[in-house]
Amino acid sequence: MKKINVGILIFNEVEVLDFAGPYEVFSRTRLEKGAESRKSNDSAPFKVFTVSVNDKTIKATGGLKVISDYTFFNSPKIDILIIPGGYGTRPLLNNEDVLNWIKSISNDSEIISSVCTGSLLLAKAGLLDGKRATTHWGAIGALKSINKNIQVIDNRRIVNDEIITSAGVSSGIDMAFMIVENLYGEQVASDTAKYIEFHRSKENV
User: Fold this and answer.
1) I need a surface site. Which of 16, 22, 189, 202 has the fewest CB within 10 A?
2) Domain at 15, CATH number
3) How far is CA 93 from CA 5, 19, 26, 57, in A?
4) CA torsion angle for 25, 57, 106, 1 (degrees, to 10)?
């Protein structure tokens, strides 16, 4: 089975659940039902990996240390790009290497998405111009200030306007399930949610 590559950007002060939540959803998805199918990757439709600027250890919020699977220079092709949030997005708004990488990857990706304040990076890279988008409730003003042409929605967990943006932290899990459902149907998404014992939110989606 040809797998879909899911690449998740990580950086210092990234919010842990922003990247770990979607990682768990995609990495535990199986096309075959039941817990037994999770013991192998035979029916796993996704290859999930993290990407960072370099191979230095990432220190996420709360002090969690993470080493990315790949860097900007050796990452495989990314079919689904996920940009998480966290306080670490703020200094990256002026990091041309990161912004240019996001723009470059977005040209070849099938799905571009963000969790929480990851939307600020998408906005700064010019990818949300003229689109509807959302972000963490505490960053609504920041998103509006980056580009006045973004229609910022402040009462939705997920906004899909060619690019998928989700609100704060845990909403990224619902976003990941939405992508799984769009690609493989409600049954596969429900089976995965049952396996990880997650109750999906259908409100404000």
Assistant:
1) 202
2) 3.40.50.880
3) 25, 18, 27, 21
4) -50
- C-alpha dihedral sign at 14, 15, 17, 21: negative
Domain that holds residue 180: 4-127+166-195
d(CA 179, CA 176): 5
Q: 4-9 and 70-71: which strand pairing?
A: unpaired
Domain annotation covers residue 136: no
Separation of alpha carbons 147 and 28, rounded Å: 36
In a domain, 141, yes or no: no
Question: Integer distance in angstroms from the first to the last C-alpha of the chain?
Answer: 31
Rounded CA-CA distance 68/50 in Å is 5
Distances (CA, A) of 205 to 21, 59, 167, 176, 194: 17, 31, 10, 12, 20
Q: What string of pLDDT tens digits covers the 205 residues of the chain?
A: 799 999 999 999 999 999 999 999 999 999 998 888 888 888 999 999 999 999 999 999 999 999 999 999 999 999 999 999 999 999 999 999 999 999 999 999 999 999 999 999 999 999 999 999 999 999 999 999 999 999 999 989 999 999 999 999 899 999 999 999 999 999 999 999 999 999 987 665 6
